[in-house]
Amino acid sequence: MNPVAIRLLNQQLMVPQFKTPVEVVSHMGAMQAQEYRMMRWAVEMRTTKPSHKAFKEAFDSGQIIRMHLMRGTWQLMTAEDYWPFISLCAPKAIAVTKGWMSSNRISIPDDEMMRIRDILARTASDQGSVTKEGFVQALAERGLQMDDHRLSYHIRMAEMSGVLCSGDLLPMKATYTLTTNKVKSQGTIDRDEALLRFTRKYIQCHQPATLEDFVWWSGLSVNDCRKGITLLGNTIHRETWKGREFYLTDDCRTRGFRTGKLLLIPPYDEYLIGYKSRDIVLSPEHRHHAHNNSGIFQPIIARDGIVCGNWSPFREDCQVDFFNGSNNMEGVQEAWALYQRFRLK
Description:
Layout lengths: L2 H8 L10 H8 L2 E2 L6 H6 L7 H9 L3 E7 L2 E6 H25 L6 H18 L2 E2 H10 L6 H13 L3 E3 L8 E4 H4 L8 H16 L4 H8 L3 H10 L4 E6 L2 E6 L12 E4 L4 H4 L13 H4 L9 E4 L2 E6 L8 E3 L6 H16 L1
Antiparallel strand pairs: 1-3, 2-3, 4-6, 5-6, 7-8, 9-10, 10-11, 11-12
Helix pairs in contact: 5-8, 5-10, 6-7, 6-8, 10-12
């Protein structure tokens, strides 16, 4: 087994199979979207013809939704997956958020939660898409003021309750809208069916992956993750590599890998953040170049799937810094040209 090649192929970073951003996000299940500007490249670099415009159209139309779903961080998912995934993940996410609130000595009584949630919902309904600053103004008009931290918790809890989701895509600022304006309602969702879908999508795009990888990524309990894998039944199998047990689907992509490919990968990308077993593609001695212990991830360069440098996505010129001796500037220029075409389309 070549885990690096298999991850590149199944994450659609090598020989991508999908034409549209919706297809990519559906395949990935839930994609990390911590960096508002770079989440667009994370999706589009996995399509056959990366286009900033195509992502915006899918996002604004509600085919792709951004919200806090797992681990208290942002993810992208399709409208089709929204209700199953929120029903599965929201209880744990809400519990985690309340724990953070307690550690920050913030207490929000239920009556305040519901009163503020109603104002947020009415504001989003009136404006269509509203920024955080718009919520601040709406509260001020009602004689209410609160610090940014407290408001952030109110917005997050409204997201995880299914009241608010992402609004239109702006260049720099996130917006919110009423979920009912973007996502069709669904009937009762069976938890096992949601867990099965959630697990299948994780394995199909992160394979080969370990149980520990899935537990880390999902934020679910070990028991839930084990159950999800069990629900997949004979559609997956296990392989051992260097003493570790990995799960793969029976229709796993294994063909198409070519050497010499260089990738400019955005910060917080699933290629790293989707695993605990990052050492497969990132040498532990270079880990600090890719992320710190506080969970801050940097833009990275990967050559043949191995993380070997950093790049600057917001510069007008191509600036890279290799840290393992690699110096493939021809490959860098090709990758940079692809990124520039994406920004213009």
